[in-house]
Amino acid sequence: MRANKALETALAAFVSERGWQWPDKTTVEPPKDKRFGDLATNLAMVLAPQAKANPRATAEDIAAHLRAACPDLAAVDIAGPAFINATFTPAFWQKTAAEAIEAGAAYGRLDAGAGKKVMVEYVSANPTGPLHIGHGRGAAVGDSLARILRAAGYDARTEYYLNDAGRQMRLLGTSVWVRAQQALGRDAELPEDCYKGDYIKDVAKIALERGGDALPAMDEAAAVDFCRQVAQDEILAGIKKDLEDFRCEHQVWFSEKSLLEAGKVEETFELLRSQGRAYDKDGAFWFRSTDFGDDKDRVLRKSDGSLTYFASDIAYHDDKYRRGFDLVVDIWGADHHGYVPRMSAAVQALGREAGDLRVILVQLVNLLQGGEQIAMSTRAGKFETLADVCAEVGADAARFTFLSRKSDSHLDFDLELVKQRSMDNPVYYVQYAHARINSVFRKAADEGVDAGRPDAATLARLDTEADLDLLRHLERYPDCVATAAESMSPHHVSYYLTELAGLLHRYYTVNQVLAAPDADTVRARLHLLAATAQVIRNGLDLLGVDAPEAM
RNA sequence: GCCCCCGUAGCUCAGUCGGAUAGAGCACAGGAUUCCUAAUCCUGGUGCCGCAGGUUCGAUUCCUGCCGGGGGCACCA
User: For residues A361 and A329, is the Cβ–Cβ distance under 8 A?
Assistant: First the structure.
């Protein structure tokens, strides 16, 4: 039923009746202060240039129009400079409960995305070691964003770009081979730029088992390659498991190597060259990214003949668009922000609009324990990895915490706090609201109370301020989904849910449900709780957090 | 030096498109449960929205400069 829509429609009718244009700067939104009604609009003020009249006078005309045209409105007031404050009837809000119950999991689904194909590429960490907590934040953001976009009506797919070619993988193979030789008692030294984590030794053991007698007898190149393959398989299996445990789905694992083997990178080179966007210089092959605002041109093929990471990444993005994606979203660590202008340039050189690529930068996570910073060095600290953190605090708490801040601001992740069941850690506050409601339902079932269908006559019992506060917030849930999708910011959902849970807890404390004064009120309140539980479930689902029936 | 992000209550942070007296939680103090889960609720007060200009009916929000914190400036990824 959408209060905004109802009001906007009535306002638009007024504007066109007068033969005026709807001003872009018009806002129709809930005011900060409840005293100003349910929705406020600045229309009279932004209409002033066209109306050529005192905004207050225009406001009077608008108010009169609304009172006549909109039966759902209980009051229309004018306040301040010329704000128009609209208050809806209780009956209007009460319908929200029925809507949420009837729509169920679909409540809050929108068609804003109009089926537009969006790819969310996220995590995409090199398979050279286990995922750490920073990857975890990117994982939570990417997965949740995909869920939100789907709810908003986009056809969103998820993908992991697997850097299985190139220098880092060779270094990985070398690292494992050195450790394997050391395990064999040979004299071998780990080069400076190799991977030093203890997990490399574990992989070396596996390589030795799997290679049998053949591995020690191999020549250097063959051994390194064998070790690289074993390492990649092992580490990737670990990454997949970690992501699964963290409830992150990647529908496609896209191999960089496959791109190279299919000649896609060379194809992209030729495309760029033919359009004058690339050239040879100093023995290297360059992309003219400065044509699209980058600071300097970028190398695609180095003078030693090897390719840069950027080269295959361009080919990969080209492939994404060729597969029909209208919009490509990349989730990157904020330390890669310097990479944005060149990727944007590449996308434009491929013939797309700059807006067809959205890069979400995820800031670093500051891992703490009881306020003390835990060093995030290369050494294997106890809770450095995503898997360890997950085991320690649980996926629900970890995900909610990651999604409780704007992704581009730094996040303190304190293991002590995230384990705690306090308002420092709102995940339990929200989950508890859901569990409490279900506890009432269990009791209702025990007592043989059946709420029946949420008809208007019953819902009319929801007429107190507390009832209406809750109803109004439920009505705004679709707006929350719209905002989160539009700004690609999952944290809006966590804030919404924390607020909704607060309203529920307050309501619960004051209003007895099963012991309400009469049977109709009991049923009405059960409906209100059912609607609230539904919205909590829907919202938590967007964050990938469970909604437990009991705690 | 250049570029990006951040700066809002003692702490951690919200505040798409400029709006009315700038919000929440935590912390601190006091109170609430013979009753559907007290993992809850209620009552207390706090702000030169980093600083200085500009844009306008109106700026925490937009623009410019400066200060402070973080990050990035590779023929690495």
Answer: no
Let me know whether A146 and A252 are in one domain.
yes
The answer to whether some atom of strand B lies closer than 7 Å to the beta carbon of A284 is yes
Taking the CB of residue A263, how many other CB atoms lie within 10 A of it?
11
Domain count, chain A: 3
Q: Assess if residue A180 is contained within a domain.
A: yes
B14 closest protein residue (CA to C1'): A495
Lowest mean pLDDT among A76-85, A156-165, A442-451, A461-470: A76-85
Q: Based on the domain organization, do A462 and A430 belong to the same domain?
A: yes
pLDDT by residue (tens digit) across A434-452?
Answer: 999 999 999 999 999 998 8
Indicate if ipTM > 0.85: yes
- Do residues A52 and A58 make contact, with C-beta atoms less than 8 angstroms apart? no
Protein residue closest to B38, using CA and C1': A509
Tokens standing for residue A519: 């049977």
- A260-293 pLDDT per residue, tens: 999 999 999 999 999 999 999 999 999 999 999 8
No. of H helices and E strands in chain A? 23, 15
Nearest to A117 by CA among A318, A320, A327: A327
- Is the pLDDT assigned to residue A378 strictly greater than 50? no
Where a domain ends, among A37, A64, A88?
Answer: A88
Please tell me the distance from the alpha carbon of residue A325 to that of residue A81, in angstroms, as a whole number.
47
Residue span of the structural domain in which A39 resides: 2-88
- Considering only CA atoms, which residue is closest to the C1' of nucleotide B21? A33
Residue carrying the six token digits 């007024």: A14
A167 touches strand B (CB under 7 A): yes
Q: Is the CB of A229 under 7 A from strand B?
A: no
C-alpha dihedral sign at A33, A36, A37, A39: negative
* Nearest nucleotide by C1' position to the A336 CA atom: B72
